[in-house]
Amino acid sequence: MDQRSFEFTASFPVNPQFAGTVAALAEHAATYAGCSAAAAREFAEIVEQAVRQCVLRQSAAHSLPVVLKREDGPLEVVVGTHRITWQITTRV
Q: How far apart are CA 18 and CA 10, in angstroms?
């Protein structure tokens, strides 16, 4: 595991209150991967909205799977069945 290749898997209750938690994880992953603080925050906001949308669609489910990963390329976050890809920009 390093900045160019990592994977983190978690499961959260299907509840919108955890959208901020997933966003914070995404922001940390983006920063760790080398994004600027502003780009990492922008990515986190996109992820937070995706989590909120997934919660609305999966109200019958007991948990929401989340995967944050990078394999020597863009950062990916998979929330349920929704995939978000983010190109890494250099820190400024």
A: 12
